[in-house]
Amino acid sequence: MANIVLRNLHSLVQKRLLATLPTPTSALCSSFTVEYLVQSCGLPLESAISASKKLQIGKKQTHRIDSMLEFLKSNGFDDAQIAKLITKRPTILHYKVLNNLEPKFNFLIENGFVGQNLPELVLLNPVVLTRSLDSHIKPAVQFLKKLLSTNDMLAAAKRSSRLLNIDSEGTIQPNVALLQSEGVPLDVLTKLIVFQPRTIMQNVDRMAYVVRTIKDLGINPTDPMFVRALRVMISMKESTWKRKIEFFKSYGWSEDVVLSVFKRQPFCLACSEEKLGRVMDFFLNTVKLEPETMIANPMLLMHGFEKTVLPRYNVFKILVSKELINRDKKRLSWLITQVDEVAAMDVSEFETAFEAENCGVCSNVFATSWADERVH
Question: Where are the domains positioned within the chain?
Answer without folding.
Answer: 1-94, 96-166
